[in-house]
Amino acid sequence: MNDFLKNLEPFFIPREVPVTFFKTLLEAIYKIEITGEEHVPKTGGAVLVSNHTDSLDIPIQGVYFPRKITFLGKYEVFTPQEAFIQFLNDKNNPLLSHPNVSILKNFLIDSLNQVGSIYSKQLQLWGGMPIIRNYHGEDAKSAVNYYEELENYMVSILKSGAIISIFPEGTRTLSGVMGRFKAMAAKIAIRAGVPLIPSGISGAWNMSSPKAVLSGKAKSTLIQYNIGVPILPEAFPKEESEKKASKLLTEELEKRVYFLSNHSERRGKPRRFATKL
Question: Phi/psi at 156 (nearest 5 deg)?
Fold first, then answer.
């Protein structure tokens, strides 16, 4: 299978195709303003951090950010074939229980696995990175091992020079108010020794809903995506404990993203860690 996928790679759709498509689509429906592109490092790894307001946040970042981004995505998005395979393997499925159907069933499963692998590889070439959200495993130890391996994987990607996008709230806001940040973005940036790029988005909340699009509200609402000044590794908190350093850095990130999403006029220079909202 790996050789098969490798031989197919020259025929995969290049990233420029979906970027052009989504940019055209977004600009036909929304008014979008991007600022701060000049703050993005030209080369090297970095962790891009933003508030999470709507499903629009991801295509806006992917289309308008001046460098290719690696996005963390739900494992299920990369493996849609597994739901069909589960249906085919269901012993209680009356349509597939006949012995003469088993050959067809096996053919379908093999075909679905091949198509699913091609689809997953295509998404990864565009910048997707599958992860299992809320993984618990068979026991607590296996869950801890999974997240350790995931962090190590992300650190290796950052060290290779890629930019990873993380929404530290962990999920989209339901109220429009920015939630508390989790520490993973700061932790992997510290471990990889790469900059953290704060950014903030405003105006996108609920704008992907059919009601907003059909009513014309989406077209009349300005969506702003503001990219801030990176926090460089030499400016990270100097703490013996990685956990405490990550906590302090996360607090600073939360403040900067808040200003970028709510008070973009206060972008300014990087502030001290004593900044208050």
Answer: -65, -35
At 126 the three-state DSSP class reads helix
What pTM does this model have?
Answer: 0.74
Map out the domains of the chain with their CATH numbers. 9-73+141-266 (3.40.1130.10)
The identity of residue 164, as a single letter, is I
Q: Which residues contact 139 (CB under 8 A, 6 or more apart)?
A: none
**Pairing between strand 222-227 and 196-202?**
antiparallel
Taking the alpha carbons of 33, 14, 17, 116 in that order, is the dihedral positive or negative?
negative
pLDDT of residue 275: 40
Across 238-249, average pLDDT: 89
Which strands sit side by side in the sheet containing 222-227, from one edge to the other?
31-35, 222-227, 196-202, 46-50, 163-166, 69-74, 128-131
Q: What is the DSSP letter of 74?
A: E
For helices 81-89 and 102-126, what crossing angle results, to 10°? 160
Residues 54-110: pLDDT tens digits? 988 988 998 899 998 887 766 666 666 667 777 767 777 665 555 666 667 677 777
Q: Using CA atoms, how far apart are residues 169 and 175, in angstroms rounded to an integer?
A: 13
| Proportion of the chain in helix, strand, coil states, percent, rounded to 5 | 50, 15, 35
- DSSP codes joined into one string, 4-19: HHHHHGGGSPPTHHHH
d(CA 51, CA 261): 8
CA nearest neighbour of 36 among 65, 62, 71, 67: 65
